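User: I'm putting together notes for a lab meeting next week and I want to include a structural view of one of the chains we've been expressing. I don't have a solved structure, so I'd like a prediction I can at least talk through. The sequence is below, exactly as it appears in our construct file.
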Amino acid sequence: MVQGGLVADVSSYTILMNGFCRTKMVDTGIDLFQEMRQKNLVPNARTYNSFIYGLFKLGRMSAVQDLVYEMHESGHAPNRVTYTILLDASCKYGNLEQGIALFRLMVAQRIQPNLCTYNILIDGLCKGSKLNDAREIFQYLLINGYQLDGYSYIIMINGLCKKASCWNSGICLYNCCLRCIIGNDSVMNFDFQLDNLDLTNSVKVSRNIVVEAFDFMVLPMKIFEAH
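Assistant: Thanks for the context. Below is the predicted structure for the 227-residue chain, given as structure tokens.
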């Protein structure tokens, strides 16, 4: 590109950084980031997000914190992608309370979580022994018309089946997946490889029946409330 007389801009560097960071070549991405600075090119939110993602995947959490601070100082407010990456990092590295705080901050700033954000949060809550909170959010998504994907159901079923007292709820949810249709008659294919179950089926899910299958009260969504 450079040899052809074209000048690399922020978008070009961001695309390259994103590729390097997603293939765990983060040090090469760092070199590009420094090169951008030397050329007085100002990183945008996508540039920072690509870099944050790469550092998180390598477990460089202190560097992630420094970069988020720099992002903020440079005038780029964290967006949904940023918060989702940070939430994933918090849950993956055992800091669930920080993850919940980030989610609440995200909602307080009126940044709309997407399904990926919710899946990460539900998974973190299930693994962090906050199954009731996970169930509340899962039911909230169903009631409010979110088009959940196969991963959403796998997370919830896995979380339920890992707790002996909720085993029946997990099996009930799975059985609903087997016999029903979701939303607009689309069919969802599940390939379950659960710790406590060995299930492989093409299934059809009904949102209404799945909601009923939980057989628990609609509780206030405390996870959304800032403390």
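A couple of points you could mention at the meeting. Confidence is low (pLDDT under 50) at residues 178-221. Residues 22 and 88 are 15 Å apart (CA to CA).

User: Perfect, that's what I needed.
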